[in-house]
Amino acid sequence: MDSNGKHQLNKNKTFRQAFHHAWDGIIAVVKHERNMRFHLLATVAVIIVACWFRLQVWEWLWILLAIFLVITGEMVNTIVEALVDMTVGHRYHPLAKLAKDMAAGLVLLLAGFAIIVGLLIFGNHLI
Ligand SMILES: Nc1ncnc2c1ncn2[C@@H]1O[C@H](COP(=O)(O)OP(=O)(O)OP(=O)(O)O)[C@@H](O)[C@H]1O
Known about the structure:
Elements: H1 15-32, H2 34-52, H3 57-88, H4 94-126
């Protein structure tokens, strides 16, 4: 706890406490990141289509891998943005630009991977 006794600054003492903070992190990224809400909406759409096509287990595995990569990539992007903003605030810094652009590039690459997986698997079912 901090000096006000309101905020925790020491290490988690129980698994429950650690889980609670991890869950807070997931809720925060969904609340604050518009892109994450878009990814979640796309995830629901993909899962509905995947159920419709009655995918096989190996196909589900590729789809789930793509979904989790994009979502975790967006989380990493959000973490980088928060750390950069905390460090430089609203000042321009070339390294801040580099870090944020690279983190955004990571999400773009992972989204590209997800699109390729989707085209291969759903395309195969369509033809
Ligand atoms: N402090 C800074 N110094 C230099 N360039 C910055 C700085 N903050 C932002 N930028 C530039 O502005 C761009 C957009 O910044 P922002 O923080 O909105 O990230 P974003 O990737 O657009 O966010 P989101 O993922 O929410 O769309 C960055 O990719 C970077 O090029």
